[in-house]
Each structure stands twice: as C-alpha cells, then as structure tokens.
Amino acid sequence: EIHITADRVKTRINPRMYGLMTEEINFAYEGGLYGELIRNRSFKGEAGYAYQAEEPVYWNAVGAAELALDRNNKLNDALDLSLALTLKSASPEQPAGIRNGGYWGIGLKPDTSYTVSFYAKAEGEIGPLLASLVKAGGASLVSGKVDGVGRDWKKFQITLRTGSELVPSKDNVFTLTASRPGKLWLQQVSVFGPTYKNRPNGLRPDLMELMAGLKPKFLRFPGGNYVEGDTFGQRFEWKKTIGDPAQRPGHRSPWNYWSTDGMGMLEFLLWCEDLGMEPLLDVFAGYALNGERLSSEEDLAPFVQEALDQIEYIIGGADTKWGAQRARDGHPEPFKMSHVEIGNEDVFDKSGSYDKRFSIFHKAIKARYPQLTLISTMAASATPSQRPEMIDDHTYAWGEAQMYEHLTDYDKRPRTDPKVFVGEWATHQGWPMPNMRAAIADAAYLASLERNADVVQMAAYAPLLANLSRVSGHSRDRSLQWATNLIGYDALKSYGTPSYYVQTMFSSHLGDVVLESSGRDIPNWTSDNGKTFPALHWVVTRKDEAGKPGRIQIKFASRAATDQPVRVKLTGVNKLAPTAQLTVMSSANPDAANSLDEPTRVAPKTQPLKGIAREFTLTLPAYSVGVLEIETR
Ligand code: AHR
Fold first, then answer.
1. What reactions does this protein catalyze (predicted)?
2. pTM above 0.95?
C-alpha cells in the first residue's frame, strides 16, 4: 500500500534536474556523434597505446600504390604530416590510390548526399582523381571526379549522392584513386553524411534525435577523464579545438585512441544549443591521470587563465577577447551557462593537492564570474580552504544489488552539506549494455534522487554513447572501452537501452515538487549474495502548469518477480480525473536487453488507466518501471 499526502510538499525539484554527461570514450565522437565517416582522416592517429603515428593506420592501398607518412610535406603546423602515395602504375582500368573502411564500416542510405573533401598536391601530371563510395569487396555505388591537383596544397570538395535503389548498409568503404602513375600527397581526407540541422562539421542525426528524447537540460563536458588526459600534454586543450578543423592538431585521448578534435569547443556548444541544454563546463584543474599535478599559485597560473579564457569563450560578449574569437568562429551570441566544475574525480590525486588547486581556481573564477556556481569533485571535508557550493558525486554500481545499497545515500546526507550534482552514475548489469535489471535499479535510484531533490540538484547518467561495432578483442581495434552505456550504435543503426528509457520516463515526467508519501507491506527481494531489499521504490511528484490542472506523478520501480497489486490512497486532494495515463516498461525476463537488431525489445508503452479515485489499485507488472500521471481537477 502507498499513501500519498497530496497537499504536503516535501521539496521543490530543480527544473534542470536531468542532463547529459559526455566524453570521448567508446568512440563517442570519433566514429559516433561527430559526423565524420572517415577513420584517421589526418593520418596522425595511432591505434592502441602508441603515442605517435608510425604508419597510416586504417588506410590501405588500392592497386599499385605505396603508402607512407611524410613529415617533410606537411599541410600546416597543426596537421604536420601527410600521406605520401607513390602510384607505381595506374590506368583507368587499373586505378591506384587509397581505401578507408570508416569506423567499422561506412553507413550509407539511399537518396542521401555525402560530402567528400580533402587537401591534395602532386608531382607531375596526376590527372583527375576519382572519389568513390564502394560496396566492401564489390562495386562502386557512387563516385565523382575531382580535377586540378597541382604542385601546391589545395582543398577539393565534391558531393556524392546515392541512388534511391541503394539498400542501407554499413559494409562500405571509401576510395580515392588516380588513373595515371605519379606522386600524390593527401591530408584531411573527409566524408560527411547528413548532419543534425545540416550544420557543417556537424553531428549524426539519429544520435541527436535519441538524445533529444531524453529532454536533457544540461551537458557536462568535455569529460570525465577526457578533461584531464593521461598527461598534461594530453588534456583537452580547448584552444586547439576551435576554428577551421584543418587547423586543429588533434590529440590522444585517455581512452587510447586519437581525437581529431573535429568535435571541439564550439561543436559542444552547438550541440547544447540544438538540444536546448545549458553547457556545464568541466575545466582542467592542474592534475592529469598519470598523477602529474601542480599546486602552487604561480605554477597553476597559465591553467587558471586557460579556464578563464574558456569561460569567456562561452559566456563573454563579442567585445571580449575570447567572445570575439567565438564570433569569428561563427557564433556572436554568448551562450548561457550557470555551472562550472573544477577538475574531475580528484579523489584519485592521492597527494591531497585538490584543496589548494580547488581554492586557487575557485578564487580566480569567482572574482571574474561571481554568478557562476562552482562545483567541486570532492567532499567538502577535502577542501577546507574553500567550501564548495556544490559537489559532483559519482555513483557507479557494479550490479543491481549494489545500486540498491545506494538508495538511501541522500536520505542520510546532512542538510548542512553542499548541494549535490550526481555527475556520473549508472547500474552495471548486462553486457555490453545494461539490461532490464539495471534499468529497474536505475529507476529506483532516480526515485531516491528525486525524493532528495532538496539536496540533489542535477544528475547525469554515464557514459552516454557507445559504438558497439567491436565490443571485445585487442584494444587496438576495439570500439568499446567501457561497458555499460546509455545509447548504442554502429555505423548504420542506433538504439536506446532499457536504462535510456528509464531516463526518458523520468525526464518527461519531471514534477515541480515532491509530495509526501509512505508505504506499508512492501515486498522484498533477495540478491544473489543473500541481501534483502524492498522490491518496490517510488517517488510522487506534482507538475503545475499555469492554466492547467495539476498532475500527480507516481514513478515506480518494481524488482518483484511477480505482478504486484498496490493499493494507492490519496489524501489532501479535491477531485481526480477518473482516467490517468500509465506508462510502463516491463519484461518478464529481467535479463532482456535491447540491441542493434532488436532496438525496442524492452521499451515503455503508454495506455489510459481507468478507475482512478481517492483509493484505487495499481497493478505493477513483474520487473517493471513506470509512471502513472493523474490529473487533479
Ligand atoms: O564515465 C567513465 C569514467 O568514469 C569517466 O571518464 C571518469 O570520470 C569516471 O571514472
């Protein structure tokens, strides 16, 4: 039985409670959200753990071509090498050149335009080049000629449009060939498919649409570990990620693969703009993952300045130095931002230097931007020199039972402590992506966060994106560095996990206030290691929209293995609409998950529920998550 006291408000809920956390992991941008289809377009990338490109990885010869990296024929100081092709023999019948298989394939769809671009120069009369999208091991699907390659570097661009008869597939490659022998140099060889809102250098539409379904209100970026890098030199050095993508050097990410940084500062901000999110910037705070750190004011000064400049790039007027740079990059209007995080998971810095680092960054940022809420990555006790306004807590539960142990974390939190941003959290159950058990534990956790909305101001599941093309095998060619994640995809398809649907259910039924409620005779479940937990978790919220009747929202997570009839009693409410909207996701098999081939095996369904009164019975299906929304009159 659940008793709801509808006239007793427990606390208000932050309207910006739910957002996204993102970083370059699992080929989230390269081979994911960033619309580039060519892998290692700049030839600077190395597979696995190597630090400097030694061969043009992910590129192969077509015909009688020899491929080599050439550091003496660079395009510019950022892309400081090129691919040199020696075409020993080539003819229209037997062309020679290069081939790239994309990120485990190149996804092609019918009636779609693909923009090919590259920089090239040649020795002698190389003749026209042929850019083609080709069925792997088969025939060309679409191709176009590019003429005019000469002695000096020049950019070329051509659009290839697929025919209506093309069957969507990812088993395709890109080739660029010549039909005369000679010597050719290439750099920034790129193919873009359609992008969200047709933005140049933009983002993959299906992934943007899935994210839009989460109704996110903020984006924590650029990491995660990706902010810090393995070394100082491999941090997210934002100034090297703006402007012309061919002027961005790129860098190695801490997840062991190359970032071209095509997905740079402005691209993150436009991602926010397109999905109605506020940027929540995480600044590098003088600590890298290998333990390198600086903590004197003098040593940290350049990094503090880097952070101040970064904030100015986001919120500064076009009359400020970095706001003007943003305007030159194509966005004169400043973005709106209210929160900045200092560092990431500094609990791993065993030297205890965060107290100093946090207070130095805090002082400098507050002096310039007093309106910003500054988030610490450690508990207030770790930063005695400067009390944080907000703490970023990370809660990864290794198994559903562990998440059930976290459900009272914030009930116990002293209300005098700083507010909380749960900047990374997830239940790990299922492989490589979360199953229904994980989703139920996630929903129970979200209910616990909403019940404690006076403390917990914001939450973001992590990681967000995962390329599932190669989930196991050698790290040199694996697309997955971290299981489990919210959204999965390959070069062609994408889908939301059951955990994704939990997020959509909670964020699209975000109330304004939490109502008092209590339970009786709640059944239990017992975990594999013999621990017993309540099987039913819930939160009751109310949404009040001007000019509309209020809506009471009962969000629930049932871990019970059988259907559970729950008697719901409502007091403190006048009239109720007799029919409510019930959205439920359930699976008789709790180990069920979604996949690229079965993207909605586990997904919510909405239906009307009749018989709503001050007392009624709501039957929760076995293993279910849901929301019942009741209109008050
Ligand atoms: O989300 C994956 C990683 O988990 C993040 O990079 C890091 O912040 C955390 O340890």
1. Hydrolysis of terminal non-reducing alpha-L-arabinofuranoside residues in alpha-L-arabinosides
2. yes
